[in-house]
Specification:
Blueprint (H helix, E strand, L loop, with lengths): L5 H8 L4 H14 L4 H8 L3 H14 L17 H13 L5 H12 L6 H10 L14
Helix pairs in contact: 1-2, 2-3, 2-4
Amino acid sequence: MAPIPEDITAFLAEPHDSREYRRALAVKLALLGYLYAAISEMLDVTPGFISQAKKAYAQYGVDGFTLKYQGMQPYLSPEERQSVLDWLQDQQEWSVALLQTHIETTYGIVFQSQQSYYQLLDEAKITYKKPSTRILA
């Protein structure tokens, strides 16, 4: 049984994202001589996951365990977002279509999802419930 490198032990002792922790633990168990099948069952990962984690560790050290994806940049900057919220609060009437037109003409941005417009309305403390049709008898 090979000794566990100190950098892995130190990495596991610190708080990390569960996916990063799982990578480090998979490599540690593999270095301890556990079979990939046993590690896969214990950590609910695939043998390929273990192999990739080991390869990343061999190439980059503990930096190979960290997640590289940082998320997508927001369409509106914080200043632009605040400006849209201020504009919304100044309006007497509003609609999602009106908001969409304002953002497109002012900033040249069209959100991929309607949910983005609803979130802006919510931030501006404006309710956005759809009107329901009611049949009067």
